[in-house]
Amino acid sequence: MRLVSLRHVQPGMKLGRTVFTDDGKVLLGAGMQLSERLVSGLQRMGIDSIYIDDPHTSDIEVEDVIRPETRQDALEVIHKTVQQLRNTNKVARRVSVKDMGMHFQQVFHKILNDLSGAKDVMIHLANISSHSGAMYHHSVNVAVMATAVGMSLGYNTTQLRDLGIGALLHDIGKTALPKELLDKTDRWNEAEMEQAKEHTRLGFDIIRKQHDISLLSAHVAFQHHERMDGSGYPQQLQGDKFHEYAQIVAICDVYDSLTTPRPWRKRYMPQDALEYLLGSGGYLFQHHLVDAFRKHIAVFPLGSGVVLNNGESGVVCKVDPECCHRPTIRILRDGRGNDLLTPYEVNLKYNLKLFITQFEDETLFTFMESKHIAPEI
After folding, report:
1. Does 96 share its domain with 242?
2. How many domains does the chain have?
3. pLDDT at 369
4. CATH code at 47?
5. What's the predicted TM-score (pTM) here?
6. Domain span at 311
7. How far apart are CA 358 and CA 94, in angstroms?
C-alpha cells in the first residue's frame, strides 16, 4: 500500500487501511473500492490523505504498532470522556468522573501489551484524522510514542502506566475551553492563545480529582508545555524542575502536532519535525530523551512516495531500524516520470550515491522555514 493525497485519489482505487471516525468506529474499511462520493466525503471531513492498495505496492504492509481494536478502544474511551466532560458544568468538573481512571487504565494496558509484543516499535503511520477528530487521534498517538520511549528507557510497569495515562489525558483540559475556540479554523490571535494556554491548569484540576489515576499523570498534563530553558508555560519551569514524564510527552506532542495537517497549513515533513526536536536537545528537552524518541520514528515511513536525486521515484518498501534515513525504495517511475513495466528495488543503505531529495507528493507537506518555530497548542 502507499500514502496518497486525496486530490490524487481516483474512483475505483482500493482503500489500503481502515479509516476510523472520531469515536473509534469504522468509517471506511480496508479493501473498499472508493467512489467519487466517498472521496468527496473524506475531503469535507478535512482528511487530506489515505492509504491505497495497487498492484505495485499491495505487498507493502504499513502496520500500526498497536492492534486496530486497541486503537478503536482508546479512541472510544477518550471520545466518551471528552463528551462527558464537555456536557458537565464547571462545578461538576471538579469532582471525580465515574470509572474514568479504570477505563484509562484498561486502555493503557492494552497499548502496553501491544507494544511489548512488537519486534521493532517504529512509527510508520501517517496521522490520518478529520479536523474535528484530531484531538482524539493525537492523544492516542502521543500515548503510543511516549510509552515506546518509556520502554526504551527501562521504565517499570508503574512508571509506564503513569506516563502513558498522563499522555492519553495530556490535552483533557481543552474540554473546559469554549467550543468556538477549539473549532476555529484560523490561527488564534494573541488573546485566544492566552486563553488556550489555560488547558494545562484545567487538565491538571480534572485529572487530580479522579480515582485510580496517579498525581504524576496529572502533572504530565500540567507540564507538557514547559521547556527546560524556562520559555514554556504555565510556570516557566527550568532544568530538572520539568519532570521527565512531562518532557517525554512534550517531545511526542510536538512531533505529532507538527506532522498533523491544520486547517491553515499542511503537515510538516517528518524529517523537518525530527530535525526541530534534535536541535532542541539540551535546551528545550534533555538530549537523551530526544535521542530515545528518535529511535522510534521512521523519517521516511513505509508507503511514502519519494523522489531520488537521479530523478527516479517510487515508494518506501522497507525500513532498517538501524538506518531509517536510508530505506529501501521500490522504483516505479524513471527520471522522466514514465511508469516502469518492471519496478525494481534499491537499498539506499548500500547505494550511497543515491539519496531522497523530497516526498513525491508535495501537496501533502509544507516546508519548515525556521527550525525555531513554536508548535501550535
Report:
1. yes
2. 3
3. 64
4. 3.90.105.10
5. 0.92
6. 305-359
7. 49
